[in-house]
Structure formats: C-alpha cells, structure tokens
Amino acid sequence: MKENYKVRSPWTTFLRGKVGYPLALVFCSLFFVAGFFASMLFSQDVPSEGAGNARVLHEHFGVLDWPEMPYGETGEGDSTPIPFQVLSWKPRALYFPNFASPEKCDAIVKLAKTRLRPSTLALRKGETEDSTKGIRTSSGTFLSASQDPSGALAWVEKKIAKVTMIPRAHGEAFNVLRYELGQRYASHYDAFNPAEYGPQRSQRVASFLLYLSDVEEGGETMFPFENGANMDIGYDYEKCIGLKVKPRKGDGLLFYSLMTNGTIDPTSLHGSCPVIKGEKWVATKWIRDKEDGVM
Ligand SMILES: *[C@@H]1O[C@H](CO)[C@@H](O)[C@H](O)[C@H]1NC(C)=O
C-alpha cells in the first residue's frame, strides 16, 4: 500500500498505461530524428578548421563561371579569384590567404636583408628617440617596387591596389621588417592624429601587411580594441591582447585606419606581439588618401 503514496509523474503514468509503450517508442524516435537534423545544421554553421575553409573555397570558386563582361578602358579582362575572409568590421580587417607565392616572399626577404636598419618612429610632440625606446624594436628598410629587379614587389603592389581599389600611386614605399626573438611593436595607430602629430599633408587610410615568413611562436598582429573591447580598462599598450592574427608566409592582412567619413577609427589600434620562437618577416604597405605616398 505504501506504494500508492509515491507521487507518480504524469509522464510515468503515461508510460505505464496500456498504449504507453508504442507511443513512447514513437516519441523517442522523433527526438532522435530531430536531434540528428539539428546536429547537421550546427555542423554546417561551424566548418572545421582548415578543411572547412577549403570546402567553402571550392564551393565558391569550383564552378566559377560567368559570361564574358565588357570592361572599360581602365578595366581588366582577367578574372582571377582572390579569396578573403572578413576578420573584423571594427576595425575593418580582411585576411587574404595565399596572397603571394613563397617564391615572391623569398625574393623580397633576400632583397631587404642586405639593407636592414633599426626601425624608427614618427615622434609625437614632446617625444624623443630616447623616450620612445623599446616601442618598436624591429629592423627594416623602405623599398619601392622599382628597386626590386625580381618584380615581386611590383606584382604585390598591383594586387594590393586591386583588392583595396585604391590606386598604386597612393601607396608609400614598402616597409619590409624583420622581428627577431623578443622584438615587437607596441600598440599604435598608423594614421596620424593632427592633435598629436601636427597638421598632415595627407593621411594614411589603410595598411596592407604581407607576411613573408611563418613564425613558430608569437609575432601575431594584434587588435586590442577590436569591436570596442578593452578601451575602458586603461589598456597597457605593451600588452598582447584582443584579436590576434598569426603570420603565415604568403598571406595578407588589410585593415583600414580611417572610417568612411575620414575620421580615425579608434578600433584600428594594433601592434606586433613579441616573437617567442623563430623570426618574423613582413612587408607593410601604407596607403594614403592622396597620391604620391611620400611621407
Ligand atoms: C564619423 O563616423 C563615425 C562612425 O560612424 C562617427 O562616430 C563619427 O562621429 C563621425 N565623425 C564625423 C566628424 O562625422
């Protein structure tokens, strides 16, 4: 009799009823089928690393086919696909896998190697070379495309113009940089705030980084303020936090320092994390709002 005092859930009552077992079976099967389809949906939303992107690429470019388009006098007949991934809208940052071949990267490194000098900084009012020591510890050299007999820099420059749709003449010479063990570049803006640097003849709109080497560990390009993060914590400009982009030989990273109305995008703050293992080579192209990117 004691058993009668036990509270039975309606579910148990239902299952113990005469028609309960076949019905329960139907319910269970339904849940199983629903779960199966739900898992398929989720697995489509989250493509697995590497292989997933390769599959997406194939879907986009495997059946690339459109009618031959008439193009203008300044247009181009070729329609080579250039894959890219939006890494962030705040700041506007795009990633270009395999932007340049390893051979082109090697040619650029070889050319730059003989000309390296310690990198310098544009100084703000009141700053001196001594007071800014340690902020930028890489070595580098400025190289224009015409100084590269291999033609690699000219090829890269044309492709950068294509993906930014900003004419080549707006670019400064390439700044090819080498970061050795422990070397880094504390967070900074590429655009020059006139309040800090005085009036500017022209302004940097965007930056394109071509990674010329892999880095075993460290050396990421970081955006500490991505999507407004860390802006109100009294961020230490030497800290390596936020959105981090790991350098991969031949890959490109493009980000905009100015918003479309011309004001400096506060989220475009970025830096180079210290190299922990290996060596980092990168070619930087700063692109300005006026022609002739002379600094
Ligand atoms: C420019 O655009 C940004 C973002 O839309 C906005 O926050 C800012 O106030 C604008 N600046 C000016 C001067 O219009």
Automatic annotation (TrEMBL):
Name recorded for this polypeptide: procollagen-proline 4-dioxygenase
Membrane-topology descriptor: Single-pass type II membrane protein
Keywords: Dioxygenase, Glycoprotein, Iron, Membrane, Metal-binding, Oxidoreductase, Signal-anchor, Transmembrane, Transmembrane helix
Cofactor(s) needed: L-ascorbate
Biased composition (Basic and acidic residues): 124-133
Catalytic activity: L-prolyl-[collagen] + 2-oxoglutarate + O2 = trans-4-hydroxy-L-prolyl-[collagen] + succinate + CO2
Keyword Cell inner membrane carried by entry: no
Region (Disordered): 124-143
Biased composition (Polar residues): 134-143
Family assignment from sequence similarity: Belongs to the P4HA family.
Cellular compartment(s): Endoplasmic reticulum membrane
Gene3D superfamilies, per database record: q2cbj1_9rhob like domain
EC id: 1.14.11.2
Superkingdom assignment: Eukaryota
Pfam families per UniProt: 2OG-FeII_Oxy_3
Transmembrane region(s): 21-42
Main subcellular location: endoplasmic reticulum
Domain Fe2OG dioxygenase: 169-289
InterPro entries: Oxoglu/Fe-dep_dioxygenase_dom, P4HA-like, Pro_4_hyd_alph, Pro_4_hyd_alph_FE2OG_OXY
